[in-house]
Amino acid sequence: NVNQVKKQDFSSSDINSFSSSSSNDNDISSSTSIDYSSSSSSLSSSSSSSNNNNKINLFDSSKNDESSDNEISIKIIDNSSGNDKKDSSSSKTQEIDIKIVDEKQPTDTEQKEYSPKPDGPFNRINKVYEENKAVNQYRAESVKEAMKFAWDNYKQYAWGRDELNPVSKTAEEWFGFGITIMDSIDTLFIMGLKDEFKDARDFVENLDMAKNTTIKVSVFEANIRVLGGLLSAYHLTEDPLFLKKAKEIGTLLLDAFDSSNPFPKAFIDVYTKKASYLRWTQNCALLAEVGTMFLEFEDLSLLTGNSVWKEKSDRIIDTLSKIKTRIPGLVPTKLKPEGTTSCAPAVTIGAMGDSYYEYLLKMWIYRDSAENYREMYLKAANSIIKNLYKEFNGVGFMSTTLINGNPESGLQEHLACFLGGMFALGAAANVSTDYKVNKEFMYIGEKITETCAKSYELSPTGLGPEHFLIKSNGEFKLSGHGQPIFFRLRPETVESLFILYRLTGDTKYQEWGWNIFEAINKYCRISSGYVGLKSAPDVNSVKDDRQQSYFMAETLKYLYLLFTDSSVIPLDEYVFNTEAHPIKIIKKTIV
Ligand code: DMJ
């Protein structure tokens, strides 16, 4: 009777590898719907429950994030004696406790019971999932085992530090936030790795972020990995600790902004609060760095009720929307801090540009009243197809960079392989009002995904290189051409495979993903963790010495989701940040 009421990787570290300078430059709940209307500073929220007209002022800073359990005791008088004639003496008085469960209390790490999502544009896998259930379960378990193995080794050799160096069994300190833990929490939760999740939570609880003395914390990386990871952990668990910590890192990141410029500086010393630029960019901002904060910053404002992050994010998108571009929607990669002009004309959808384009779409998927994002996305997407997409003999690929208006012919970066999933997701969400345009987006998404998967399939190790070339007869060239061809455990291809599988139900994406997983196990798993290869196509390649934090955040998460059923992180309920941390969509209708 108790009722429960109720980028060394591109982007930033890769960005640093372009640098000529030294390594110093390492140098409310889901039931609440939010009305963003058009005014950015007066968000209001109303409960979706029709009989509750309470208006919550989300931006009331006095609101306490950590509400507590309420227990009330009530008396129930039972008159049902089974006798028509009422006899008050036979009434039974019962005292029962009603526990009002606060929605933000931590939940168990158990998986929810399987209740498949209805078929629709974001889910076409129920039938094929059931048909191959045993295989799917075996594969999901295998990926889970890989996650546990990677985690256990990190725990043994690098606990609390940023990343594990498996060959030397040492730890890599990058900017001192235990990045691997922050990046892994949600994956551990999704996979139901309870003990590991508990260890991660304990670490987060005891971490005093303001005491970090790393001089140069990358604002971009801290945003996508630390803030993104904590927000996602909060969305999945509703444990207030994660929101408290997200607020902590979000507050520290605010020091990267000053009132005169819209863009944040690239680094922040959270201890002294001094911000600095990337030295090798001559104080210019990089598009991917400043254009990949919208989702995390808005979500933090929404969840805390403090508009400060959304205001920064609005100012950035506003500035970017006004920059004059040679090609509609394609913003130059290096920008003046005041945001009025670019520092150089080159445009890229690969390293240093990539996730800006991803976030234009994802902001429109995330919330209502995001027409500015949609328009900017459509302009960019159409220009990408027109200027960078090519098909040679049926092989479709993206040249990632436009220099002086000309595409770098035939060269594709692995980092740009996320575009397959991006184009397909936009199509499924009907980002264009023109049916034919969405159809074309889906086609491009499928083509890019296929090409990226092929770069793995054709490689003797089964692992695709960082760069590959498509010749004019459609042949793949996986080596040479002066660009790095390492394999760094990156996620972009398996990310697209996962998205395409959910959207089409075509099991070929699962097969390609499984082959990649097996190749990773064959060539990258050593006794003390997972490492990359210096040369992806070389079966005798020298291994690198790094278990990248995004391997557990992204690569293993997407591989796991490729073999789970449609109830696990449904694409109409969550949008992934660029580091694969799922954030709850607040848009009322997404298709
Ligand atoms: C990740 O940190 C993110 O996906 C980022 O957007 C791009 N690079 C790495 C993984 O390759």
Question: Total helix count?
Answer: 17
Task: Estimate the helix proportion, in percent.
Answer: 25-40%
| Residue windows where pLDDT falls under 50 for at least 5 positions | 1-111
CATH C-level name? Mainly Alpha
Question: What oligomeric state is this?
Answer: single chain
How many beta-strand segments? 24
The tally of structural domains comes to 1
Beta content comes to: 5-15%
CATH architecture: Alpha/alpha barrel
Strand order, main sheet: write it out: 1-2-3
Overall form: globular
Structural class: alpha+beta
**Hetero ligands:** 1-deoxymannojirimycin
Disulfide bonds: 417-452
Cofactor: Ca(2+)
GO molecular function: calcium ion binding; mannosyl-oligosaccharide 1,2-alpha-mannosidase activity
Subcellular location: Golgi apparatus membrane
Summary?
It is built from 17 helices and 24 strands. With 591 residues, the protein is an alpha+beta fold.
List the helices and strands and how they pair.
Blueprint: H1 13-17, E1 32-35, E2 44-47, E3 55-56, E4 70-78, E5 92-100, H2 126-131, H3 133-158, E6 163-165, E7 170-172, H4 179-191, H5 194-206, E8 217-218, H6 219-237, H7 240-253, E9 267-269, E10 274-276, E11 285-286, H8 287-290, H9 294-304, H10 308-322, E12 334-335, E13 347-348, H11 354-366, H12 371-388, E14 389-392, E15 395-398, E16 401-403, E17 406-407, E18 411-413, H13 418-428, H14 435-457, E19 467-470, E20 476-477, H15 492-504, H16 508-524, E21 525-526, E22 529-530, H17 549-561, E23 574-576, E24 582-584
Antiparallel strand pairs: 1-2, 2-3, 4-5, 6-7, 8-9, 9-10, 11-12, 13-16, 14-15, 16-17, 18-19, 19-20, 21-22, 23-24
Helix pairs in contact: 3-4, 3-17, 4-5, 4-6, 4-17, 6-7, 7-9, 9-10, 11-12, 13-14, 13-15, 14-15, 15-16, 15-17
This protein binds 1-deoxymannojirimycin.
EC number: 3.2.1.-
Protein name: alpha-1,2-Mannosidase
Family: Belongs to the glycosyl hydrolase 47 family.
